[in-house]
Design goal:
Number of strands: 11
Largest sheet: 7 strands, antiparallel
Mean pLDDT: 81
Low-confidence stretches: 11-15
CATH class of the domain at 84-204: Mainly Beta
Shape: elongated
Strand content: 25-35%
Structural class: alpha+beta
Length: about 200
C-alpha cells in the first residue's frame, strides 16, 4: 500500500524548523513624470491665439471703416478759408500800403493808384501766377517777391520779373453803406483779359 505523503511545511514544523516568512510586498509602481503639452494641445493653443488676433484685427478694421463713413457724412466745413470776409473801414487804409492782415485767408488789401492815377482800394490774390506759391511783400523794395522761383510783382499786382506769366488776380471788392470793405473771393479778375476795368474789381475813393 502507498504511504501517505507528508506536506513539506508540516514536515518542517514537525522537525522544529522556523516557519517560512511571507513574501515581501512589492511597492506600487511609480507614477510617470508629468509630460509637457501634447502636440494636439500645442496646436490648439497656437491656432486659438491666432484666431483671436485675427478676430480683433477684423473688428478694429470694421470700426475704422465705420468711423470713416461717419466722418465723411459730417465734413469739417471750417477747414476751408471763408469765400468772403470784411476787411475793416475804408479810412483805415493808407496810400501805397499793403495790408497783409488777411494773407492767411489768401488776400492782400491795398490802397493805391490805377492806370488813370485814381485813388482806389483793391484786393489781390496771394497766389503766384507761376506755380501757385505765396509771394511776400517787401516793403523796402515795394514789391511782391515769390520765394519759390523769384517772380516779382509791383504793388499793383503787375508782374515785372521772374517766370510769372501774368499779373496777380484781383478779387471782387465793395464798400457797404457804413463804409466797411467786403472782399468776395468767389469772383476773380484778370488784367490780361481787361477785367481790371470792371468796377467790381476796385473801390473808387
Amino acid at each position: 500500500m502507498a504511504e501517505p505523503q507528508n506536506n513539506p511545511s508540516e514536515t518542517a514544523v514537525a522537525a522544529g524548523a522556523a516557519p517560512a516568512k511571507p513574501a515581501p510586498v512589492k511597492p506600487a509602481p511609480a507614477k510617470p513624470a508629468a509630460q509637457g503639452p501634447s502636440r494636439r494641445g500645442f496646436l490648439g493653443a497656437v491656432f486659438g491665439s491666432w484666431f483671436a488676433v485675427a478676430w480683433w484685427t477684423f473688428a478694429a478694421s470694421m470700426a475704422g471703416m465705420l468711423l470713416g463713413t461717419v466722418r465723411f457724412l459730417f465734413p469739417n466745413v471750417l477747414s476751408e478759408p471763408p469765400s468772403s470776409f470784411k476787411a475793416g473801414d475804408v479810412s483805415n487804409y493808407e496810400p501805397d500800403k499793403v495790408d497783409d492782415r488777411y494773407k492767411e485767408v489768401g488776400a492782400w488789401v491795398i490802397r493805391g493808384k490805377d492806370e488813370r492815377n485814381r485813388d482806389i482800394i483793391y484786393a489781390l490774390s496771394t497766389t503766384c501766377t507761376h506755380l501757385g506759391c505765396t509771394p511776400n511783400w517787401l516793403e523796402g523794395e515795394k514789391k511782391f517777391k515769390c520765394p519759390c522761383h523769384g517772380s516779382g510783382f509791383k504793388i499793383s499786382g503787375v508782374n515785372f520779373e521772374g517766370p510769372a506769366p501774368r499779373p496777380l488776380e484781383r478779387y471782387s471788392i465793395r464798400k457797404t453803406d457804413d463804409g466797411q470793405i467786403v472782399v468776395e473771393k468767389a469772383r476773380k479778375f484778370q488784367k490780361e483779359l481787361g477785367q481790371w476795368d470792371d468796377p467790381d474789381s476796385y473801390i473808387l475813393l
